[in-house]
Amino acid sequence: MAVFQYQALTQAGRLMKGTLEAGSPSEASDLLGQMQLTVQSVEKATPPKARSAIGRSEFVLFNQQLASIAKAGIPLERGLRELSHDIASPKMRRLIEAIATDLEAGMDIQEAFEKRQRDLPPLYGRILKAGVETGRLSEMLTSLNRHLEMGSRTRRIIFEAMAYPGMVLIFTAIIITGAFTYIIPQFESILAEMVGGELNMVTTLFLDASHHVIPFWTVFGTVLAGGALILMGMSHSAGGRRLRETMLMRVPVIGKIYHDSLIGRLSEAMALMVVSGCDIPQGLRLAADATGSAGLIRETEVLAARVEEGTAILEAGQFCRMIPRLFLYSMQLGIQRNELQDNLHSLSDMYTSQAGQGQGRLQSLLMPTMVVFVGGVLGMAVLAIFLPMIQVITGLSSG
């Protein structure tokens, strides 16, 4: 199958441009004819250049604009087409125009967005599809923006807390590397002779490190780059995303913030499903899609299947690891008392509040931790240099 670029006229006489997959130009023309389009030209498309994902701030702005379009009741394809005229970034404009073209050609919204997974976050198409199917697209996009803003705030807290100590640590590493490479080795024999050949353990450790400082940074840089590439590669499969999510949730404080934020979004999305008239199994599936969490999607699929078999939701969720028992119990109680929507909104507020409190704890912990770490490294370096002198002075005093 090859990709062909086409120009065609709609029944209303409007010019359309786009691409489609076909075995030959004649097959591409036949497919366009089946879409009731009058073909003007069909030619093989040149392979597109590899593109990087759009920036986070660009995506947040786009999501806000999309929420406004949905709230105004404008058809998505028309709204995206008009939105593209107001976008300053050429890359973002081309992306939006391509999506609008696919939607105008009758492509499913999930498929149209998932074709651009290199540019947009994973599962974004599923979130949009869930919003369209329930008629709550604007609310879901607004909920997603709150989640994105919370994630951005967490990253900003981490960056701000680590920026100053991190820069001090980098300069310290540069200075120590230079000292270990060019200065300390020259003093090794002098220090050993000064104390009679038996240096203390701390100084010995630092002197040994001076012989391996370049290989250490080489290995450290390789491991760091390899880890970053592995994490990036995980986003291309559901299993990889689940593994990355599991690893993130095991990080102290940060994992709790992420989990609380997800459950808050799940609760809010589930409340929207209930208002939209979805039954519990369908609502669970769509609400999990709206979180964009691969782990939650997998768990809710099994949970929804058990509920469809007639099992009470609390009992059906015995296996759940990401979905808390409190969430399941509140849902069951809400169903029994006909207060499900209120219970879900309360859960959403509670978990969102917990995530906010976690961000406060993170902010108060990171800076002191980084300062103590940097201070410890500098202190050990100073101690290693002065300990031989202390040994000599102590030996002279005792003599």
As a whole number of angstroms, the C-alpha radius of gyration is: 29 Å
Oligomeric assembly: single chain
Which sheet architecture does the biggest sheet show?
A: 3 strands, antiparallel
Give the terminus-to-terminus CA distance: 89 Å
Number of helices: 16
How does this structure look, described?
The chain has 399 residues and is mainly α. The protein folds into three domains: 2-44; 56-143, Receptor-associated Protein (Up-down Bundle); 151-399, no CATH class. Helix content is 74%, strand content 6%. It contains 16 helices and three strands. A three-stranded antiparallel sheet has the order 2-1-3. A hairpin with a 5-residue loop joins strand 1 and strand 2 (15-22). Helix 2 (56-71) crosses helix 3, helix 7 packs across helix 8 and helix 11 (254-275) packs antiparallel against helix 16. The termini are far apart. The model is unreliable at 48-52 (pLDDT under 50).
